[in-house]
Each structure stands twice: as C-alpha cells, then as structure tokens.
From TrEMBL:
This is Large ribosomal subunit protein uL18. Belongs to the universal ribosomal protein uL18 family. NCBIfam families: L18_bact (TIGR00060). This is one of the proteins that bind and probably mediate the attachment of the 5S RNA into the large ribosomal subunit, where it forms part of the central protuberance. GO terms for cellular component: cytosolic large ribosomal subunit. HAMAP family: Ribosomal_uL18_B (MF_01337_B). Keywords: Ribonucleoprotein, Ribosomal protein, RNA-binding, rRNA-binding. It comes from Sphingomonas horti. It holds the Pfam family Ribosomal_L18p.
Amino acid sequence: MAKLSLFAKRRQRVRTSLRARGGQRPRLSIHRSGRHIYAQVIDDEAGRTLAAASTLDKDVRGSTGATAEAAASVGKRVAERATAAGVKAVVFDRGGFLFHGRVKALADAAREGGLEF
C-alpha cells in the first residue's frame, strides 16, 4: 500500500469527520491553487452542486488573484448564491488545506454573507 502525503492524510481525516456527522447539511467544499480559489456548495445525497463561485468568474477575474481579498469576495459570492438556492446551513470542507490565510478569509466572508457552519 502506498504511503499518503500529509495533504492526503489531512483530506482523509476531514472527510471522515464530515461523514460521521451524516448528510443532513450540504457541504461547502473549497479548493485552493496557486493562482485561484474555488468554492462550491454540494448536496451529497442528490450528487449535485447547488452553488459555486471562484476567482475565475467574469466579473472578478481581471482584478484579483490569489489573495485573501479575492478569497473573501468568493466567500461572499458563494454565500449569496447558496442563500438564493435556499441553503442556509452547511458543513465546511476545507479539503486538506490548513485553516488560515485564504481559506480562513473565504470562510469568514461566507459566514458574514449569511451561511451558518
């Protein structure tokens, strides 16, 4: 069996704790790359995405990059789209990423935007 990287171990640990809570709430999943940040609200029971936002959106694309300010704008945008889709409470799936910097900025902005987690 192949050894898992630290990132893969963290991701597995986060997903395991999310599964233990059950599937009552949709999950706010994020992905952070070197240039962009992506967020989507996923209903795992139905297997579909309810809302999504990223720094690749047309109205955000040219002015932002991989910064905490860009992550905050993505967090606000995904919160607006999720509440428009009827989602108020989510579980936060940070993937394998540490909760600081851009990930924390996105989470805080999503909370300010009206999502509860």
